[in-house]
Amino acid sequence: MFKFRIQNILFLLLTLLVFSCVPTQKVREVNKIALEQYDGQTTDTLNSAAVNWKDFFSDRHLTALIDTALVNNQELNIFLQQIAIAKNEIKARKGEYLPFLNYGVGAEVEKVGEFTRKGAVEENLPIRKNETFPDPLSNYTLGLTASWELDVWKKLRNSKKAAVMKYLATVEGKNFMVTNLVAEIADAYYELVALDNQLAIIEQNLEIQQNALHIVKLQKQAARATELAVKRFEAEVLKNRSGKYEIKQQIVETENRINFLIGRQPAKIDRISQNFMDSVIDTLLAGIPAQLLRNRPDIRKAEFELEAAKLDVKVARANFYPSFSLKAGIGLEAFKPEFLTSIPESILYSIVGDVVGPLINRNAIKAEYSSANAKQLQAVFDYEKTVLNAYMEVVNGLSKVENLKNNYEFKNQQVDALTKSIAISNKLFQSARADYMEVLLTQRDALESKIELVETRKEQLKARVAVFRALGGGWK
User: pTM for the complete prediction?
Assistant: First the structure.
């Protein structure tokens, strides 16, 4: 009884010694960023992020492109395999804290020297009456073995939970990729349609300039204009003809960028370009900033990664504690196959319990624990950065939408004024009340203002997409 108590005391002291040597590092918690109300927005919780992307985009050609991309985009399909890998990791981690059961069949032959202890025993020990050990000696085994590590410190279960968090983070990463893919295709589509409209504007302007060139040639014949005026008008016509091919090249490149995103070879992109300037810019509902925490996939991804990092710290700390394992086996063993069925003589079994823990030179475990804490701190900073970036993107996007709206209104008025001035300058030039430079500059300014107006409309549509993405829309 006394001896038993001494053993318990020694075991308790050893346990206390091990626990007292376990280091502890404190990692700060996440600083909750106070997300203020968006400037000029109400406290209404209606949010455009809740809208399905098929309802957000009204152009059927654009929605068809996005649908194709969600099936064929190679980068997205690569990421889907990462999700499958993360899911398999959960199964692997779950299997680690369950018992292992293995089977085994073995056969071996052994020849020992006669003038050895083992050889002398075999030579002089009969198996049965008038039988001796065979030479060489065979051995046949058939049995089952089981092993089980007792998860006393929850190391294996925390490892499985960390794998679950990493899997969920991977899923959110896929959702964030879908959001970006939808926005990228929409941006490229609007850029393509804008290029079509710019090309049409240049062609319209060329017609005006060619008419002006014809008039100035007639005036030269009538001695009312000089060769300089003719050459300046010709140069302006050639300049815009050259610009047509630059835009055509941009159209080809933009089409192929969309083709790449939807995972197909170069082909014509179906689109509607005629009503681009009449596109209705619907009102965006931003909701409240707190909704970003559940709508933005990148924020949820960072949150799951933070939880996984915390669990990894617990797993790394558990490595300092002793591990408890049980091993058992049962089977049949004999040197002749026919003796395997001789029971109970051929039966073998074993059961072992182990307690193993690090005692000296734990530098590798300490380094792993310190690295896990550093990774957790990284995850804290990454989460804070992701939340702050999301808030900034929405604020900047909403401001850009509003400023582009005002910008478009003034540019539209500018285009109207310059378009009217073209006809006026032509009449004044024909009546010799204006020189050719006034006509050229008027035509050039009108062309530039029209192209700028198309650019502004494109930026309006892209800004709307950017806010939709920033609010967390596009992946549902």
Answer: 0.83
